[in-house]
Amino acid sequence: MTPHLPVSPSSSHHLLDAAPTPASPAHAQHRRRRRRRMERFGAVFYVPGNHDLWLRRENGRYMDSLEKLTALLDACSELGVDTGPRIIGDLGIIPLFSWYHKSFDKEKDVNSVRVPSLEMACKDFHACQWPPDLANEDEALALYFDKLNDRNQDAIEEVKKSSKQILTFSHFVPRQELCPEKRMLYYPNLPKVIGSDFLERRLRTIHDNTKHGAACHVFGHTHFCWDSVVDEIRYVQAPLAYPRERKRRMNGGDGWLPFCIYRDGFNPEIYPALWSDYYNKNRREPENTQLAPWVAKYFSKYY
């Protein structure tokens, strides 16, 4: 197995050079079907999210989530899925590895109601398994994932030099302003498990010389539709979301199509999105911890 992740002499326990598990005939057939589906697209890009690294049904196949990450990236390489920078026409596309850390949350906590702990509310704390020196409790894990991008630095510089427009994307959130205020959330501590300051700094160095209107970052994780421009970079989230969430949106999902962000240039139309539309008209009040009516009703019912 060719390791995809950087490893230092002191981190051999990350098992990045472990021997691959032989594929069963059924698994090999499944990969062939996936490869045929991939051939329908000119290019497919991928970055791992938190669900991808859960170890809930792997039956001991991986020792930890980093070993599973290595296997995922190997599978992408085999299938022709890009996990690194690439230039397509005038557009440079740069996937960014990331993870979240609690210190990403800089806004005042909601203390008027009892909020379940992160360990109770977030399955990652139980479904992911990390080496002893990496954990969700501090910034170590987020920093580790951010440093994975260093291996692509030469390719990133080539994209910056050769592309008229640049699209970066990540699973996690780069700025807290791209999430509703805590008083608006059914789980007010959500900002502690969604984003990374390292990610925002990283994408800013990529877009530092990009002209206005030619820089875009696509993100995910929170399932909040979003489209806004902050400090000359456009931030977009157009989530497929869970089926139960789709039923509450977009006419129940009927006629839904993916949002086109680029076609011979970035789509200049800012698409309607509940929360980014709200903050385009209303000032953010992070010091205000008075629960929104729907949140107060929820807590009165369940707590």
UniProtKB/TrEMBL annotation:
Domain of life: Eukaryota
Signal peptide (UniProt feature, chain positions): none
Gene3D superfamilies referenced in this protein's UniProt entry, alphabetically: 3.60.21.10
Bias kind Low complexity: ranges: 1-13
Annotated region described as Disordered, given as residue ranges: 1-33
Full protein name: Calcineurin-like phosphoesterase domain-containing protein
